[in-house]
Fold this protein.
Amino acid sequence: MAAISTRRNGSWVVTLRGGASGANRRTISLGKRNITKSSARAFCDLVTAIEVSARGGGLDAKYEMRLRGLPDDLHAKLAVVGLVNPREPSTLGRFLVRLVRKAPTKSVRKYRDAAAILASYFGARKRMADVCKEDVLELRRYLLRDAEQRRGSGRKGYAEPYVNRLCGYGRQFWKKAQEAAVVIDNPFLGRDIPKKVDGDPSKKATIDEHLTGKILEALRDREWRVFFCLFRYLGLRGPSEIFSLKWEDVLWSDRIVVIRDPKREIHGAGKGERRPPLFKELLNELDLLRRDRNPAPTDRIITRCTTSTTNCWTQFFKVLARSGVEEWKQPAKSLRSTRATELRAQGNPDHVVNAWLGHSERVFREHYGQVTKRDYDLALGAGALRKAHAHTLESSGTGRDGDSGEPQNAREFQGVPPGAHGDRGAKWAMRDSNPRHPRCKRGALTN
C-alpha cells in the first residue's frame, strides 16, 4: 500500500512498502510544485491501484486514463520504482525519430519525409498529446495555401493528394503513439480530414496492342523485353515485386508465375503472394532469355534491379527514346491498369482478374479501370449496324409508316425484318404485339 506525507519544505512524498520489485521501502517525490492535498491523494490512489494490478488484477479504466494523462516526469518516477514500463518519448521529434528507425526498409524514406513536415510545422519539442484536431485542420490549410503561393511564384508546391497522404501518415503515427500509451486521442481521425488519395485520370495511359508492338520492336535487349512484358502482361508492382522475382518462381509445367510482394505480407497470410498465368506473350520472351543465360533457380530474372528501391524506368525510357517512343506517366501503374482492363474485356470473370493481379474490386474501380478506344469502337460499330439496317428498310419501303421513321410493328422494333420467315411474313403481318390470323373473324374467340 502507498501513503502520502510531507517534507519540511512542503513537498509531497508518496511512500511504498513491500512493492512488486521486492524493495522494502521506496519513495516518489512529487517535487516543489503547487500540488494540493487532494491531487496528492489522487496520485497516491493511482499508485495503490497500480500495485494491486501488478499482483494479478487488472487496472481499472479510470486509473488507466489517469495513468496515460500523467506528465512525463511523474511517469518516469513510476518507472524508476518499477511500477510501470518506461514511456516512449512524448515529444513529437523524439517519438517520430524512433518510429522512423523502426519502419520497414521500403517505407523509411516516406516516413522520414512525412515526419520532417509534421515536426517542422508543430515543433519538434511539442508534446504529441497537445496536438488537437484544430491544429491538424490548420496544418492542411497551411499546406494547401502555401502550395498556391508556391505555384504563383513558379515554385513547386504540395498537391492536395499529397496533403491527404500526409494526413494518412499522421494517423499512422498517432495510432502508434496510442499503442505506446503516449496519447489518448488521435487528432487525425474524422471525415473532415481527408486521407484518401484518388487516382489522377490525366496521368493514366493506355498501352494498347499497337503501342506494345512498337515498344517491343524498339527493345533489342532480351532482358529489357522481359522487363517490359512482366509489367505489361502480369501487372507487376515496381520495384518491389520485380526485384523479388526469381527463376524458381516460374512454374513452367503449370504455366503459372508465383509473384511475391514483401511489402504486402504484413497485411496477413496470402496477401503477399499471387499466381497469375504464364501468358503466351510472356512465355516466349522468358524462354528465350532462359536459353541465353542458363541461370540457376535462385537467380533473379531482372538483374538490372540491384535493390528493392531501384528505379529502372529512367534507363528504360532512354532506350525507347532512341526509337522515337515517347515516355508516358506512371509507367508501372499504366501498364497494370491496361492489363486489368484488357483481361476483363477478354471475358475473364472479375474475381479471377482481381486474384491474378492482386487487388480488390474497389481498388480496380478507383484506380485501374479504363475507358479504351475499343469501347468506343464497339459502341459506334453497333450504332452503325442499326443505322445501316434502318437505311435498308427505308430504301425497300417496307416496315415504315410513311417518312416518320418509326417502327410499324414489334418485329421491326426487335430488329427482325419483315418476310424473314418466308411466306409466313405475308400471312402474319404484325400490326401490334398480339397478332390475329386473317381468317379469324373479329370476336370469334370471345365467349
User: Anything to note?
Assistant: The first helix runs from residue 37 to 54. The two ends are 102 Å apart (CA to CA). Residues 248 and 321 are 33 Å apart (CA to CA). Confidence is low (pLDDT under 50) at residues 19-23, 399-416, 418-429.
